[in-house]
Amino acid sequence: MKIQKLQLVIFTLILAGSATAQNPRLSQIINAPMLANPALTGRFDGQARVGGLYSWQKSDFAEMPHIHVFSDIKLGKYRTYGDEPIIMPNEKNKAVKSGPEAKDEITKPRIPKGYWALGLSYYRYGDGNSPLQAQFISGSVARHFYFKRNRYFGVGGQWTYADGNLDERRGTAYDREISGGTFRYPQGVPSNRVSNKSYLDFNIGAYYGKTTEAVAFEIGGAMYHMFYPKNDILDKDDETELRHRVTAHSVLRLRLNDKWGFVQKNLYWQEGLYLRSKTFNDSLNIVDFWSGVEVYKTNPATLFNLNFGLYTRSFRTVMPMLNVNLGRVATIRLTYEQPLNTKKFNAYNARRAEASVILTHKRNTTPGTRFYNKINFW
């Protein structure tokens, strides 16, 4: 059994190695699921949550901050398979109620069929020294379904209002690697150009998963820029369109032992894809792959839980992650991304320090509690 688990992990990592090229976005994209797939809106333990992420990125040519703020809420009755409340050792005198939505009922008529979720997010990159700044306001809706006892899937849609501002009088420090993208900026020789551009964008996504005590998995995919919005920041080229972005993710949880749990995550991200490309070069623009593992202490004795992880971007950077869980309310995540070989891979020279805080309302359990029954590892 252990050999089969090891082979499964190695096979997953080998598949991850096929992704190449560059992408300038966040290190903690795994921890910002609504940016990766609209269907993941509402995929968490609890009823509502709000979070914020701050990223300071520096390359050989420029530096700038990235800010991401999000919130999502579940509507109506929602099932939290594996996250039903229990009494912790230090809460013996506190009554914990478990609503019908949290029970793992076998009788078919009593199994909730799913729930709706709504989400809002705000993303911004650039500062007073950046010639190109942009901000994005998104709203998303998702429907989550449960089939039988331990299978689940969901679909979601998202709209985004994008607003870009170009002012080369602010400065000339610009690097595509640490820019958030989605606006075409023909940098060239700075000439004090000033311009504004905005557009509406639409995105869709879906996922499917299954969990057992021994193993759990989830796969999903999304497509962004559904209607090819025009994105020339100078607003002069009517033929320049934003091509589709395609993302795909997988989550694998294996049972190690009674003290430690193991989660392996992958996220594939490709920009610039046409549905029907006539040439190979039309299909590839920016491709990236986040891959890594997280280790959780299972059945923690207290509500304070310290966990850790290690990620990489296309196997050309290394990202250690520290995950601090404070009770059932707050989660703090810290990462630092360091390039491995900047001389060989010139596109990977950015260093990224990121911190995120997530506050959850009516969360049932901490990450390590009932670890081998959970479906929520985002």
Describe the structure.
It is a single chain. This protein has one domain (2-373): Beta Barrel (Porin). A 14-stranded antiparallel beta barrel has the order 1-2-3-4-5-6-7-8-9-10-11-12-13-14. The two termini are 27 Å apart. The protein has helices at residues 2-16, 33-36, 280-283, and strands at residues 48-58, 63-75, 114-125, 132-147, 151-167, 194-211, 215-224, 244-255, 260-273, 286-297, 304-313, 317-326, 330-339, 351-361. The longest helix is centred in the N-terminal third of the chain and has 15 residues, at 2-16. The chain has 378 residues and is mainly beta. Mean pLDDT is 80; it is low at 1-24, 91-109 and 280-284. 6% of the residues lie in helices and 47% in strands. It contains three helices and 14 strands.
Q: Briefly, what is this?
A:
The chain has helices at residues 2-16, 33-36, 280-283, and strands at 48-58, 63-75, 114-125, 132-147, 151-167, 194-211, 215-224, 244-255, 260-273, 286-297, 304-313, 317-326, 330-339, 351-361. It is mainly beta and 378 residues long. A hairpin with a 6-residue loop joins strand 3 (114-125) and strand 4 (132-147).
Kindly list the characteristics that best describe this protein:
378 residues; Porin; 14-stranded antiparallel barrel; 14 strands; 6% helix; 47% strand; disordered N terminus
